[in-house]
Amino acid sequence: MRKYKIGQIAKKAGVSKRTIDYYTNLGLLKPIRSENNYRYYTEESLVRLHIIEGMKANRFTLEEIREQLERLDDLAQTEAAGSITDNAINIDVLRNQLKQLEKQLLQLQPAVVGLDAQKAAALRNRIMVQSMALVQSLMLYINEITCNL
């Protein structure tokens, strides 16, 4: 598993070290502590940073982002517990999730046009949670593959 120091992950994500500190203090990022108490961030943290920045760009508040990430973590734990066999994530589960999400998006596109802002925002939140859960699952799968190489 690749580990990044705060400056490395900040540069890779295109944010400042101060932003990384702030997100860590809010609990949005969870670093790994080394024996000498240095903070290291994983690829999962990098994915979370991209999710956070994407949600901020869509005008989610940091509190809403925290809530969504908590739901995502809960979903990922539930899915991981149900889809891991002999330390390998079931690829078919991921494919089915992706197909289901794509199907839902295609069905919802015509309906979104006529929605008021509040309903559109609620719908966007539901889709975002499902998308984040899928990204989290894919990230776990990629980590599993690279650890076994």
Automatic annotation (TrEMBL):
SMART domains, alphabetized = HTH_MERR
**UniProt GO MF annotations:** DNA binding; DNA-binding transcription factor activity
Keyword vocabulary terms for this entry:
Coiled coil, DNA-binding
Read off the SUPFAM superfamilies from this record.
Answer: Putative DNA-binding domain
Q: Where is the HTH merR-type domain?
A: 3-71
State if Transcription is listed as a keyword: no
Q: Which residues form a coiled coil?
A: 52-111
Xref: PANTHER family? HTH-TYPE TRANSCRIPTIONAL REGULATOR CUER (PTHR30204:SF95), REDOX-CYCLING DRUG-SENSING TRANSCRIPTIONAL ACTIVATOR SOXR (PTHR30204)
The name of this protein is DNA-binding transcriptional regulator, MerR family
